[in-house]
């Protein structure tokens, strides 16, 4: 009777954050048939307790790199939580990366620049090339930055006319400030020759047999004004190696692979010799000085020669008419600085001929002829002028460069 007079219990409200009751405990305010509270399974309880909401996408690793994927980044926040300016910028199209990037400068024509100065000293028959500096060098795959400058006179034998500077190490902006001098450079050479300059890596670090230079350039020397220096700042160009024609593969002292430009020789040269002539009035005879030779042809398998010079005064009998200098080993630009004397009056010497020949010394075999020159009354041009001017002025030493002929002169008795 008392329980019938009590009001029904108020429903108990519970937040989802509260701990759920254990399984099997009846929940207040619920009833089931038969008067027993229902049982709630663990799966149903977890589905009810989890706060429902919109399912958000899982962030990918590409979302952290919008530079590479500018148009595929999803919107991670509601539009009302983002500034209006940001959404405007996001919606704007962004440039796509170039599928074909520009080629590196190593594959282009212009690689770097080389600063140098040329001076044609016509009074001393010399060409001076001063290498100052290079800028913008990009070494090959080896990463070497140890460079030097190599010079060649073309056309002609590349090995005979090759000069190089010292090596500057550890910099891509090398400064050499070094002068390379070509002796025996005449006005005729300035008209028909070209100077080639190459910037190369140090061969001590590169073990390859041949490595292409970092860049090269060519300067026609006909543009030079005698006795006036001219400065240059020219872009270097890339050069590729080419195989030498089969007809030249068996040449003595020549390798199988040479630069392509070396095969384009318009005419064959055998070098020059610097001679000094002086008629001595005190001694009563002719003083002949053999000073040096340049750009001789290589006659040995190692690419060099062992040159010496022979003198012969014709006609004249006896050993006093023949002289020979000492041998200079393994060089194409020998220096002798030796002097020889031929006695006789001036009128008699004017009717004779002086034969100068350059030879390559070979042990156990016949010596190889490199080139020769004939001075005397039967000569012409500079050779005749050198001979007559020497005999016409006593005690006056006259030095002059003479190109060598490829064949020895045959004189009759």
Give the helices and strands as they follow along the chain: HHHEEEEEHEEEEEEEEEEHEEHE
Query: In percent, how much strand structure appears in the residues?
Result: 25-35%
In which order are the strands of the major sheet placed? Answer: 5-2-1-8
Largest sheet: 4 strands, antiparallel
Low-confidence stretches: 12-19, 28-32, 67-110, 241-267
Shape: elongated
Instruction: Specify the number of helices.
Output: 6
Molecular structure report:
The longest helix has 11 residues. It contains six helices and 18 strands. It has 413 residues and is mainly beta. Helices cover 10% and strands 31% of the residues. Strand 13 and strand 14 form a beta hairpin. The chain starts with a helix and ends in a 10-residue tail after the last strand. The protein has a four-stranded antiparallel beta sheet, with no helix packed on it.
Keywords summarizing the entry:
18 strands, mainly beta, 6 helices, 413 residues, four-stranded antiparallel β-sheet, single chain
Mind sketching the topology for me?
Blueprint: H1 2-5, H2 42-49, H3 84-91, E1 113-121, E2 126-135, E3 147-154, E4 163-164, E5 175-183, H4 187-192, E6 194-201, E7 215-220, E8 230-235, E9 241-243, E10 257-259, E11 272-280, E12 285-294, E13 307-314, E14 322-324, E15 335-343, H5 346-349, E16 353-360, E17 368-376, H6 382-392, E18 398-403
Antiparallel strand pairs: 1-2, 1-8, 2-5, 3-4, 3-6, 6-7, 9-10, 11-12, 11-18, 12-15, 13-14, 13-16, 16-17
């Amino acid at each position: 009777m008392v329980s019938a007079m009590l009001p029904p219990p108020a429903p108990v409200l519970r937040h989802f954050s509260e701990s759920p009751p254990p399984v099997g405990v009846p929940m207040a305010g619920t009833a089931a048939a038969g008067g027993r509270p229902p049982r709630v399974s663990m799966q149903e309880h977890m589905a009810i307790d989890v706060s429902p909401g919109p399912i958000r996408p899982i962030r990918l690793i590409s979302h952290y790199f919008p530079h590479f994927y500018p148009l595929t980044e999803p919107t991670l926040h509601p539009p009302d939580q983002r500034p209006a300016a940001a959404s405007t910028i996001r919606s704007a199209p962004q440039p796509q990366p170039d599928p074909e990037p520009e080629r590196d400068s190593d594959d282009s024509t212009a690689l770097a620049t080389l600063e140098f100065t040329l001076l044609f000293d016509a009074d001393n028959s010399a060409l001076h090339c001063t290498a100052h500096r290079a800028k913008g060098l990009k070494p090959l795959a080896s990463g070497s930055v140890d460079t030097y400058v190599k010079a060649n006179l073309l056309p002609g034998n590349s090995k005979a006319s090759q000069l190089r500077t010292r090596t500057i190490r550890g910099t891509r902006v090398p400064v050499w400030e070094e002068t390379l001098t070509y002796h025996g450079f005449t006005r005729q050479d300035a008209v028909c020759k070209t100077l080639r300059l190459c910037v190369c890596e140090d061969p001590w670090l590169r073990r390859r047999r041949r490595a292409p230079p970092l860049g090269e350039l060519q300067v026609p020397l006909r543009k030079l004004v005698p006795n006036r220096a001219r400065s240059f700042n020219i872009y270097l160009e890339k050069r590729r190696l080419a195989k030498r024609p089969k007809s030249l593969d068996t040449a003595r002292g020549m390798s199988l692979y040479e630069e392509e430009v070396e095969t384009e020789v318009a005419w064959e040269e055998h070098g020059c010799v610097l001679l000094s002539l002086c008629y001595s009035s005190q001694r009563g005879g002719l003083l002949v000085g053999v000073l040096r030779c340049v750009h001789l042809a290589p006659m040995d398998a190692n690419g060099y020669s062992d040159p010496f010079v022979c003198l012969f005064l014709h006609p004249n009998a006896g050993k006093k008419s023949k002289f020979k200098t000492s041998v200079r080993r393994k060089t194409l630009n020998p220096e002798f600085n030796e002097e020889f004397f031929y006695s006789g009056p001036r009128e008699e010497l004017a009717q004779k001929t002086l034969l100068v020949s350059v030879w390559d010394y070979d042990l156990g075999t016949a010596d190889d002829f490199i080139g020769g020159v004939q001075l005397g009354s039967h000569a012409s041009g500079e050779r005749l002028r050198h001979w007559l001017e020497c005999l016409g002025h006593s005690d006056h030493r006259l030095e002059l460069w003479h190109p060598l002929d490829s064949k020895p002169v045959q004189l009759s008795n």
